[in-house]
Amino acid sequence: MLKKIFTPVQTWLLLNKRCAGCGTPLAKGILRKKNKLAIVNCRCNRRYVFDEKRNAYRRALVQEE
Description:
Strand order of the largest sheet: 1-2-3-4
Largest sheet: 4 strands, antiparallel
Oligomer: single chain
Number of strands: 4
């Protein structure tokens, strides 16, 4: 039930380039390159992968961290 509420909100936040956890802009996060991946660490310690081709963010998988 709660998943139906949170999923669209988190998707909307990522489309607006904001963290799904704390809502801060991901441009303020710490960017580091790792094996052709641009990984952004937010201040709430969530990790995101920045796709330069699409100019979009997504949550990082465990293998990518």
